[in-house]
Design brief:
Keywords: Cell membrane, Glycoprotein, Membrane, Transmembrane, Transmembrane helix
Structural class: mainly alpha
Number of strands: 2
Distance between the termini: 73 Å
Transmembrane segments: 34-55, 62-86, 147-166
Radius of gyration: 29 Å
Subcellular location: Cell membrane
Pfam family, one: NKAIN
InterPro entries: Na/K-Atpase_Interacting (IPR008516)
Strand content: under 5%
Length: 207
């Protein structure tokens, strides 16, 4: 019963991670945030692999999923520090998120709750094919939305890591106990073999 509860809980956590990652992927695509897009894609693949390992009792897949969650926590911690400008990190270095391919920022910068976007006409600060805007009236600034999104990812990853370790330990214990009772060893049950020789019986006929 404990194994079933652990597997079901881990599947629920993986499902929540998948939904949160897909939602985040959509908004990162809208904001042309290429580094987060790549990280989200790898995370989605790892979560699907973790779900497959949970359903199919694959111990190694769960270990890979747990190791990836450690990397995922580190990445989201970096995102939180980046938007809060911790240490020497600064949001002016947007090339970290876009691989220096565009001047776009987070999609939430212009589309946050209550935000009013006003274009600045005849601005000499804007490069070619770009425009300068001012954003005001936001109920929640975009950097805090990004921080909240990353914090949710960290929280789900921590729960996923704990349950992945627990379920993988249960799977490993079950494999060890099954091998102990002779599950696949050479002294286990051997089905009776069919003889390839046919025994001929004489046939008598009435004369």
């Amino acid at each position: 019963m404990g194994k079933c509860d652990g597997r079901c809980t881990l599947l629920v956590i993986c499902s929540l991670q998948l939904v949160a990652a897909l939602q985040r992927q959509v908004f990162d695509f809208l904001g042309y945030q290429w580094a987060p897009i790549l990280a989200n894609f790898l995370h989605i693949m790892a979560v699907i692999l973790g779900m497959f390992g949970t359903v199919q009792f694959r111990f190694r897949y769960l270990i890979f999923y747990a190791v990836w969650l450690v990397v995922w926590v580190g990445w989201n911690s970096f995102i939180i520090c980046f938007y809060l400008e911790v240490g020497n990190l600064s949001q002016d270095r947007d090339f970290l998120m876009t691989f220096n391919t565009s001047l776009h920022r987070s999609w939430w910068m212009e589309h946050g709750p209550g935000c009013l976007v006003t274009p600045v006409l005849d601005s000499r600060m804007a490069p070619d094919d770009h425009h300068v805007i001012t954003v005001s009236g936001c109920l929640l600034d975009y950097q805090y939305i990004e921080v909240l999104s990353s914090a949710i990812q960290v929280l789900l990853a921590l729960f996923g890591f704990v349950y992945a370790c627990y379920v993988s330990k249960v799977f490993q214990d079950d494999e060890d106990s099954f091998d102990f009772i002779g599950g696949f060893d050479s002294y286990g049950y051997q089905p009776p073999q069919k003889s390839s020789h046919l025994q001929l019986q004489p046939l008598y006929t009435a004369g």
